[in-house]
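Q: Structure tokens for this one, please.
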Amino acid sequence: MEMSIKSKIIAGIVVLLLLVAGGLYVFSGTQYVTKRIGGTTTIELPEGKKLVPYTVQWEPKGSHIWYLTEDAEPGYKPKEYSFHESSNLGMLEGTIIFKER
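A: Here is the predicted structure, written as tokens:
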């Protein structure tokens, strides 16, 4: 049974949508999507480490985020930090959340 041109176009569109959705699923929740599209990424720091807040930065032409941690002092209460992007248009803004444990 031969497919009509209309059926082939619809099948092609469905395959394309599945590829795009699959790609977003693979990258979902990652720094890549947060930087390029917006959304939220949560980074849980290792036990006993604390964030040095003013060290958080994106890799200049990439999608990796760099940050500095240091050992937490005895009795230190873990904190949570949220870094928010603010764009001129108010769209595609991202948030990175650092959780100390």
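A few notes: DSSP finds two helices and five strands in the chain. Strands lie at 39-44, 49-58, 65-71, 80-84, 94-99.
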